[in-house]
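Input record (one chain):
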Amino acid sequence: MYTPEEIYGEDDHPDWGLRALIAALVLVLAAGAAFAGWWFWMHRDVRVYMNGVAVDVTYHSTFDEVCAAAGVQPEAGDLYSINGNLIQDGGGEPYVVTLNGVELDKAARGSCKVEGDELLVVRNGGDVTEDSEVVERVVPPLLVPADSLRAVTFVSQWGRNGISRVRVGAVSGEEILEEVVQEPQNCILDSVNPVPSDGRKLVCITFDDGPSSYTADILKILSEKGAHATFFALGSGVASWPETTAAIEAQGSEVMSHTMNHLNHYATTSEETYQETAEAFETMRDYAGVYTSVIRPPYGNWNEYCWRSSGGTMSASVIWNIDSLDWELPGADAIVENCTTDVENGDIILMHDGGGDRSQDVEALPRIIDELHKQGFELVTLSELMDSDYRIPDEVARQYAPMPEDCAWPTEVAE
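The corresponding structure, as predicted from the sequence alone:
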């Protein structure tokens, strides 16, 4: 009779396969149990302390997860300007984290995983004021207008720059005044109706818009009558009539500016106003050897903003007290009447020697001079009239008073 070993062979015994299966199952169950044990160990709750408060979190929680569980949101400080205005959220000091007393940098915070009993402390960053530096600033003068407009408006005080030290924000560019080193000296305008201070009876006849072909006839009449006048010439006219311009001063009368091209300076830009003023002075000097810093604004339109735009090229602007209305061509009789009625000491009379037909002015002028002489007036130049009034500075009265080199012209009008 055969034994099982003889029939199946020793390796093919049924118990061996069962045993192998059982062994495999045991290994699987052991591995599963080990994995479950590992998983539960790795996901167990542990206690850490955030800013002194106990917090239960999962083992190996990250720093951010611990913060979320503790209700802590680390914040960097903000960046503020030197005037206290917010420049950037979070632009100030960074927040600081310590683990068991050791400060963690950004990389260490990212790799941090708690295992239990850690002491975490989070300190929010402080606000920061931007860097700044102290620099010196030139403080320009202001233009102080006259309290009211009269016939002669002039610079009674030239302006000078001041110096201040200011703190400037490196990011915002804001400024804070630290110290006034030197106060600026404002440029002050004054305006008067000239009145001779010595009791003389003076009147000034002025002619606008020339020179022209009528100017020579007017000069002849002035010479015959022993009178002088002031001619407010256009720069463009002087360029065309330089010899006539020179003849005005040779007669004993004088030439001042009516700007370059007779524009309405209530309707020009600042640049145009400056150009019209400066170019006329330059043209008079270069073409006729006339030095003046006095203007009569076209149409009489000139205010503190025009003064500001003139850039320090002028010392006075002059309008009139009496208008001949010759521009209406009313006839010689009417012009004589307009120029000789109710004339007061120091008056400035407006007539024209250019800009149109001025034959009526030429016809009226001898009678105007005779009547004014009859009333006891001397007919003088504007410079002589201004010189007679103590309120007008001597340099302005001399008609050429350029801004001193150590002075500065205002760029803003005082409120």
